Amino acid sequence: MKTRQLVGLGYLLVIVSLCSAFYLPGLAPVSFCEKGTEECQTQIELFVNRLDSVESVLPYEYDVFDFCKDDHEKRPSENLGQVLFGERIESSPYKFHFKEDIKCNKVCTKNYKTGNKEDIAKLDFLKMGMQLNYQHHWILDNMPVTWCYEVEESQKYCNPGFPIGCLVTSDGRAKDACVISSEFNKKNTFYVFNHVDIKIIYHSGESEGWQGARLVAATLEPKSIKQADENNLNCEAGNPMEVPGDFKEDVTIVYTYSVTFE
């Protein structure tokens, strides 16, 4: 009897592990329609999960960092696997409607003053996250939002997360994601990924006789962009968002995003 119980427990742990490792939209499909349609859902909500790093055993909830927060924060119902594995899923300020492309929308602005102890602590914690390569984990329609990039021999690698930012060390060595751009080249400097280009791929039910569409994939590309004027945003080009290792001048970080549907 004990042997059967142990075997049964083993199967349960495997099932829980699989459920925690993957988000399967097909388990609870949601149909999305364009804004103004009553038959199905029009708004798409993006949720954020806890951040982790292969360089640290400590995960952190999204709210611990000084990121943009949802004005009406809520937590969705978590399944058994997510609860057992300590997931901390909550709503985000990144919201949009189905098939409505967004170009360079501001989420929030974060200001850090050199004479303010609280600002110094917040920025130091953000820099710690970049130095240890902490990763965002975002969720859309129960799917992980993945970051896909090219590696050796034109191979593409997709990661279910993306970094806060990266660091160029005092001896000029580009760490982690700082290797993706030659613009990340200033010694003893952090580069914040304060902009994301989100691409959502969907499957329409029109040819199959059902209303709306189902989301089948969501990817993003993180970018570091310093905004010269937050009232006149440019998310296509510009200097990267630098945070000096030595906090001697005030720092302003404008967080933005763009969305396209395919």
Automatic annotation (TrEMBL):
It comes from the Eukaryota. Its main location: membrane. Residues 1-21 form the signal peptide. Keywords: Membrane, Signal, Transmembrane, Transmembrane helix. InterPro entries: EMP70 (IPR004240). Belongs to the nonaspanin (TM9SF) (TC 9.A.2) family. This is Transmembrane 9 superfamily member. It comes from Ameca splendens. The lineage of its organism: Eukaryota, Metazoa, Chordata, Craniata, Vertebrata.
